[in-house]
Amino acid sequence: MARRMQQTSLLPSRLCTGGNIRVWDITAADAASAEIAQHDFASTVDSLLFIGTQLVALSSVGKVAVWNIMTRHWKVQQITPITSHDTAGSSLLLGCASGKIYYIDMEKFPLRMKDNDLLVTQLYQDPAKEAVTALSVHFTPKMCTAGHWLEIAYGTASGTVRVVVEHPETLGQGFQLLHTFTVHRTPVVRVLLGEKHLISVCSDCNHVRTWTVTRFRGCLSTQPGSQPLASFNVMSLEGTLNSDGLSPSASARDIGPYGDHDDQQVFLQSVVPESNELYVRLSATGK
Description:
- 1% of the residues lie in helices and 45% in strands.
- The protein is built from one helix and 23 strands.
- It has one helix at 250-253; strands at 12-17, 20-25, 35-40, 47-51, 54-59, 63-68, 74-78, 82-88, 91-96, 100-105, 121-125, 132-139, 150-156, 161-166, 176-181, 188-193, 197-202, 207-212, 215-216, 219-220, 227-233, 266-269, 279-282.
């Protein structure tokens, strides 16, 4: 998979085999010079993605590696084991087994002064210190306030769903816990916070719970607060989970929800393996 990077004539493509990451310029005329970067991650790469002009590799053991297309240098940082992640614009958020949520601004690409290594900032710690198994970040419209309002929804290993926010009035005080929902009995494997709805999926037969969210001038509000909307399952005979309950198979992950955060999202349901029937269901209601 390739993605065109701004302000460069390169069209990079990346490949990972085990812990070895290789990057090619697929526009190069000479195949021998097409490879432009290589890195031995020394760990299994669980996610590999482009964010702006950065290539990011993540490992569940807590390793983060970032390659900049301009400087063509790698920066590596070790944190606690990573159990989830999400992106919004140039921001990368990491949910960890320790219950911590970390943040990296890829646009500013901050480096630590003491060793010039990648700066990873801790944003929040789950009150119960449970593993953050699903993560969704949402930026509100700029007209909301003079500054930005960052909203994060996350799910934990025990099935709890929380929503935390930071707004300009409380800048410097850390994130504030806005909502806590204890509706699942198994680990949350997917969560999505959008303009109108909050959606969570747990590992028990892809059980989905949804809420309508209340906003005032684009920002989340507690008056009257979020209201339960629907409860349903997106069943799949091949959508099984691993024994740890935290790592769904590829088929279980692929149900979605898909779509823009600020628009209507859908689940894709294939009930019978190798069937020619695919059901498209609204993520908010299951219909």
